[in-house]
Write a structure and sequence with these properties.
With 111 residues, the chain is mainly α. The chain has 5 helices and no strands.
Length: 111
């Protein structure tokens, strides 16, 4: 379920940062599944990951949001385990939100 205009949350940014920092196999889902769950295209997720690369001075897309910069500032010097714990909490919240969205859509179809 992708939307044409995704509104990035801090949780979304944190998940993308985690993918940047630890790689595409760092969550219990593939990058396409992450993008779907967050309600965005894979290209959008890849661009956000490239923003974090730019924030680390490693190239990437340099027109990043202030929220991405904020997440980078918060977590760039944080221990790996803490980043993973925070990203896992954000992932669980995203999954719960997706479940509620699907329940709503199913209820609408039944009406």
């Amino acid at each position: 379920m992708t939307t044409s205009e995704h509104r990035w949350t801090d949780g979304d940014n944190l998940i993308a940062y985690h993918l940047y920092r630890f790689g595409g196999d760092s969550l219990p889902a593939t990058k396409p599944e992450v993008a779907e769950t967050l309600g965005m295209s894979l290209a959008s997720l890849d661009k956000k990951i490239a923003n974090f690369k730019a924030l680390d001075g490693r190239g990437g897309l340099t027109s990043y949001s202030s929220r991405a910069e904020h997440i980078h500032e918060l977590y760039s010097a944080v221990a790996d385990a803490e980043v993973t714990e925070a990203a896992t909490r954000a992932w669980i919240l995203a999954m719960e939100t997706q479940i509620e969205r699907l329940k709503y859509e199913l209820a609408k179809r039944r009406q």
